[in-house]
Amino acid sequence: MTFSQTKSMPRDASARRIAIVDIARTAALLGMILFHLVFDLAMFGFLPADTARSAGWPLFSKLVAGSFLGLAGLSLYLAHGSRFRPRAYLKRLIRVVAAALLVTAATYLAQPDFYVYFGILHSIAAASVIGLAFLRAPAVVTLAAAVAAFALPGIFDARGWSIDWPLSLGLSQQIQPAMDFEPVFPWIAPFLIGMALGRIGQYAGIWETLASVASDENRLVRLAAWPGRHSLAVYLVHQPILIGLLQAWMLVAPA
């Protein structure tokens, strides 16, 4: 995670990493892996079939998804809030879009009736484009937009309104079943909140402080931050690894 030190250094100063943000992303990854492990255990019959849809697991999964989007919004602001770098932005966006399309293709081949047509990566990609409009906006404006985005689906439901295309907006009364679905509304809300916190933290000097508190010179910090710095790769490989391990377990230790 990077930011430009606009208060004390020129705008073209080299960016520094904020390890604490990467560590927060690592924590979100651990939450995601835990939820998917529970989901997979239920799918393979090691747990009751509805485990991931009962108790507090649905709320837990929403909190994890919201944390990813919030951190993505924070990252967008820290990387480009002071000076937009189109090459770096496009490189990152292309990677996220490519990964999202890979998830869509893989899940369609595996379960065509429940494939991921607009999951967390699709949502991050869309929010990363929409978020450009808020890079220079005051934090209060961005927060107001987040509140509106969060409330919009509820307003549509209450009034019986529906926008059926594209379904990715999240404003349709008829949603196509999917293994993972994080539409633009309301999921752009945590992304915008992350952007607003980025701006607030910049003016308060929080990011410079955090960058110095958790230094990469500490081996434990580097270790904790590593998964967060490679979150896209971890996201793509963790489910195949979990499923492969469970399949292997069923072969060597059949019930």
UniProtKB/TrEMBL annotation:
The chain crosses the membrane at residues 20-39, 59-80, 92-110, 116-135, 140-156, 187-211, 232-252. It comes from the Bacteria. Keywords: Membrane, Transmembrane, Transmembrane helix. Residues 17-240 form the Heparan-alpha-glucosaminide N-acetyltransferase catalytic domain. This is Uncharacterized membrane protein. It comes from Lutimaribacter saemankumensis.
